Amino acid sequence: MLSGLLIVLLPLVLGYLVPVRHPTVLAVINRGVNASVYLILLLMGFGLAGLENLAGQLSRMGGQALTLFLVTSTCNLAGLWWLSRRLRLAADPARVVPGAPTSKLAAMAGSLALVGVVVLGVALGLAAGRLSAIPLHAMAETLAEWVLYVLLALIGCQLRNSGMPLRQILLNHHGLAIALTLAATSLVGGLLAAPLLELRWNEGLAMAAGFGWYSLSGILVGDALGPALGGVAFFNDLTRELVAFVLIPLVIRRHAALAIGYGGATSMDFTLPVIQQHGGVGCVPVAVVSGFLLSLLSPPLILFLLTL
Asked: In this structure, which long-range contacts are made by residues 54-62, counting pairs with CB atoms below 8 Å and at least 24 apart in sequence?
């Protein structure tokens, strides 16, 4: 199991060791990450189509994803509310950037587009199953594994070249505290949800360790535990992001740490415009640091937990 962890972590580490200076190369890397995510999710849907009693499996996935989401979100909200009362991190409406783009609809449309890719993969898998006697579903899982290695290398390179020096991260105590609270409460939620989902304790922890990074959590869990549980992890983290778009404007002025933290890893990208629009520019560095730390922690933590 340890060798399997090292094999998957190696591309991430190698990618992190590569410094990139040229903007054109960085743009190619970003496009490569997006393309790899879409391809793997398409292949994940293709693999789902090969499951026996697909309708029953999908129904079970929905119930499991909802259970995991409710348990982890309850723990997250309780922990972040407690932290908000102690940090006293305040939003500053006077420093909201006038006309700053929230991109809520565009970001939500992008999230739902990923769901559409999974659905498309299921449709293609069902069609292939009727037209071909070759076990294409097994081939899709093998191909997804190799694309995953490429994706991890590209993500490692992204993190290395994100412009976030380690000194800047460690000195932002608010961002660090929010990230640690979100991570700890998510893992508590995963541990509590494991028996409800009929999973081993480490599998429950791994399912909750995506911290909102739905595209990656679904891929990593699916590669280790199969496409059904990969789908559960994907929809759990996707639901977090969609709820965050609604929650952030409602609570950020009174509980800034809660609003920033609940977005998890997405606080540095997809939900960042909403945080900036409703919380002011002072919340942006905190959100970026929190999201960056959770993005850095999530892949190796998921992989480690799945090897236990």
From this structure: 54/122, 54/126, 57/228, 58/231, 60/228, 61/228, 61/231, 61/232, 61/235, 62/235
- Whole-angstrom distance, CA of residue 304 vs CA of residue 308: 7
CB-based contact 288:260 (threshold 8 Å): no
Sign of CA dihedral 81, 89, 106, 96: positive
| Cβ density class 73-86: b for 16+ within 10 Å, e for less | bebbbebbeebbee
Q: Hey, is 120 helix, strand or coil?
A: helix
Block means of pLDDT (10 residues each) for the chain, 308 residues, are 59 80 84 82 77 72 92 96 87 51 56 77 80 65 79 78 65 89 97 95 95 84 86 89 84 90 86 79 83 88 90
> C-alpha dihedral over 100, 292, 20, 25, to 10 degrees?
-50
Radius of gyration (C-alpha) of the chain in whole angstroms: 19
- Coil, helix or strand at residue 255: coil
- Dihedral angle of Cα 297, 298, 304, 308, to the nearest 10 degrees: 130
* Residue whose C-alpha is closest to residue 34's, from 205, 280, 269, 258: 269
- What distance lies between CA 234 and its chain's CA centroid? 8
Contact 193, 208 (CB under 8 A): yes
Domain spans of the chain, in order of start: 1-307
